Amino acid sequence: MTYxxxxxxxxxxxxxxxxxxxxxxxxxxxxxxxxxxxxTGFRGFVMALTVSQPADVNAFIDAALGAGATxxxxxxxxxxxxxxxxxxxDGTIWKVATSARKNTGPATRQVDEIVLLxxxxxxxASRRFYVGQGLTVAKSFGRKYVEFAAPSxxxxxxxxxxxxxxxxxGVPADGTGSHRLVLGSTAGAFTDPDGFAWDAASLTPTA
Length: 207
Description:
single chain
């Protein structure tokens, strides 16, 4: 089965980005490397952390803001649960959410899942492309949303319409230039219909 093992964020200042993500509290699936490729506006993706309860959402959001992130959507209750959205100093958009509406204990800052949400121009076409690359569909809502299966230790991939994803993140959908994102996978190197680059996963962290 094909899946994402690592996500590499391309950043202008790896040292500053490493300080931010250390404070944010992420694991080894997210890596950094230097890049000066031009990128403006929405980069077409959102990184999402799924946690177990609202207290953990607040803990991650507070840590991100304290480390220099910008609030895009304050943490709040929604139809789906509880969550908020921030933008890291390097420009990456992060959503932290839980399906729970009430706390069951103190915050642990434990991440249940890391999910990469890609904004697709044509969700159905991108779904067909990724199935052809060996990914297995785990959940699908027609042309609106697709989620692919992944081992518990991997980064889960999901597709969402680009404009809907931008709206969910609280930013305009317009953007040009590099996605500033490279996905390390078990499938080797390829580029998807929206220009997202995949490469063979490396066992050695880049930052």
